[in-house]
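User: These chains co-purify. Model them together.
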Amino acid sequence: MKKTPAWRRYVTFWRSNIAEDVDDELRFHIEMRVSEYVARGMSPADARQLAERRFGSVDRARTACVDINEQHAKTEGRAELLATLRQDAGFAARLLRRHVVQSVVAAICLALGIGATTTMFSVANTLLLRPLPFPNGDRLVTILSVRDGDRTAGLVGSYPDFIDWRARQHSFVDIAAIRQTSYTFVLEAPARISGAITSTSLFRILGVRPVAGRLFRDDEELPSTPPTMIVSQRIAEARFGGTAKAIGSQVNVGGTVRTIVGVVPDIMAFPQNADAWTPLVRADPNRGRGSRNLEFVAELRPGASVERARAEMRSISDALAKEYKDSNSNIVAYVDPLRERFVGGARVGLFAMAAASILVLLVACTNVAGLQLARASARAREIAVRTALGAARGRVLRQLLTESVLLSVVGGTLGVGLALAGGKTVATAVAGAVPAWMTFSLDPRALGFTLVVSMLVGIAFGVAPALQLSRLQPSDVLRGGRGAFGASRARLQNAFVVVQMALSVILVVGATLAIESVVRLQNVPLGIDPHGVITFRVSLQGQRYESPRERAAVIRELDRRVAAMPGVEVSAATTYSPIAGCCSQFGTQIEGRTVPPGKELMVTGNLVTPGVFRALRIPVLRGREFTDADGPDAPQVVIINETFAKTFWPSGDAIGHRIDTGGGGMGTIVGIVGDIKQARLIDPPEPQFYRAHAQDPWDRMTFTVRVSGDNPARIVPDVRRALHEIDPTLAVYGAVTLDRTIEETVSSKRLFGGLFVALAMIALFLAAAGVYAVMSFYVGQRIPEIGLRVALGAERRRVIALVLRRSVGIAVVGGMLGLAGGAVAARALAHSLYGVDAAEPAVYVVAALALATIAVLATFAPARRASAVDPMVALRTE
Amino acid sequence: MSEPSIEVLRGTLDLLILKAVSWGPTHGYGVARWIEGATNDVLQIEEGSLYPALHRLEVRGWIGSEWGTSENNRRAKFYTLTPKGRAQLRLEAATWTRFAHAVFAALEAPPQPS
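Assistant: Joint model of the two components:
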């Protein structure tokens, strides 16, 4: 922008003279001409006439000149207004530059505070506020089957229920059933691609438009229609050489040849990270009502509310419960907005983080307010001079607020950077894995939020010092007295520091709880030894594996070959590896005991090959483990875990009893093994059973192989080769060490704890800066008094004690308030954190210690300064 | 005033003004006189159009102005060339010279190209 020199503002002074000036100038010209012609000998009258003719129209020239100048003056006027604003800002910037350290500290404080808040807002915005990226996003709901009203254990539903819901409901445009799965594509080499089997209604409900090809047709749910498939753009490009080429391609998917009929945008990745979709083929609606393996999304009719849909589904569920007592008693279909399925669990964590970041922002604000206030005494004289010279009080206030808003906008800008960098991290910390279609770019709403927060913050921390300063009586200040201003300022500054300390203590309490929870989680007894175990999955798909014996044989053969690989100590396979996040549950009956219908026992069970207890180092407490002798023709056997045994045979005589575990039929208990964490680290011990894979061969197995040495993953290429030799259409997938799996389940919690600690550290740092500032000021003010004391014989030790007493006083008040607030916060947090107790005294001790440490550290330098006061110098300064 | 005077194109007037004030502070009358003298009275300008041109150049920042006293002790507005104006003068002079050379060359070329 063009720089306007300050003198230009006096253009206004000239403006009224524009016309006169032009007249003067033109008159001068004509007079000069006249005297020229007169000098050449013309008569004055002739000379004037000639001169005027030569000039042409005076009026026209005059108007043109005045126009040009007035136009210009108007432009200048606007520039002048801008110049005044710039002057304010420039003055503010100069002042901020002059106190560079203080300004940088303040800007950093604000950046941390505003950045933390903006980050939290952008995460909350994405998870909770921003519309889902589907055309009908606000009308999409999920339907869960809830047993006994326990919504947290949201069950999936069955196909017959789906058919009945669809037929009887009036609240939805349509319902779609989905089963997440993964497919083995046999292209050059077998590859696993995650995806979903879905009713053809899914894409209609989501409102997807294909990038190429078409969506599913309803007749593709019929078993007679040739098998089709839809893939994501990413897969079409990576595996089929582009979207156009992909259409019509035939792929061997787990033994079935499917034709790709459509390509959809990557953002669809629905429900979680899917890249391929196949139609859910219609099944017998009269069978398998209790087999719940589908999840549901539905589109509400325009104008229908979630509550009404919920009520309707409840009445449908009640009817079904009466009609199908065995499978549906106590089961209610519960309608929830789709968003809840993905972020419902994140709310508590998000709330905690948001509260924490707002606390940090408050600490930052009070801190900067304190800094500004500290500068106020230095400014007092300048302000007084300006007021005395006639600056309006409003003008002075405006100048001070311009300064603080400028500061906070700088901080806010830095903070936006922080938010951009941190959004995804925070989302992972509060929500765990987030679906691909939720993105964390900063949108106008988040940026607007930052801007508003920056402004408000600037005004908030600027207004107290500004009011104090503008209330000054110039005469008092100029006379040199500190007087009343000093005292009220000190009170305010102390109050700020007390607030900072209290807020920091609350944050430290929260952070300590979060960390304690992570530590507890990491030290949870797993019941297994994960170190040195690699897990990978194999899925037997294709005609050949309709036969149970083939399934058993291939798994056993791979097991045998892996066991023979160099470095492998034990090879085994199980349906789900420990800490896998999921598992299979079976309706289980104990021989000789009857249970009322609807109350049947659901027990987590695994089908395993013989070596599994050795591979995972699960202790066999009584009886025996499985052997190769437990084959299809041998008597059916079961192994149960300790909790199962203790729950149903408290006297310790479980072995020899028989249980029916659903799929495998009745089996005899031959062994009892230790409990393990099957699904999640935070689960309490639960009954579990194991059956021999050879006696009930499933098609999807997870190998758990114990390998000696550092890198158990090194055997994976050999395993791929071995499986290729056994059946080239099968793929090894999901290879990961057990250590890594556990690490991943803990990592988002650790991230949560880490962020909390970071926020608490920031707050502590800010509070320390606050204490330092207030104590420096205190010491600075008391130098004459201290000098006098020293002159009168006070020991240095006593002087230090005097200073310390002061900061300890502030710390005690702040600490008490903070501990009280922390107790409330801890109660709220303890609900969402694993294994922590809000009443744990250690938590509060840590917070108190942290506070005491920073109070003493921050007082150290001012106290030393006080103790080094030279009485002579000190007394002379006053 | 034996020969017919030539009407001056507007762009050319700006160029002549810049040249006129390039020697030092000059008032509007001085500028008119300089143009007369320097062009042997061939180029006759309508003096009334001189002033809007001067003010326009001033607003553009090519010339600056100051009120002072003239040689016969009268209050007059003196114009000076600004550094920006000097650069503009150099640029326009070069353009004009190129233009004039081109026209000359065309006029002196044989009437019928071979």
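Chain A has 25 helices and 21 strands.
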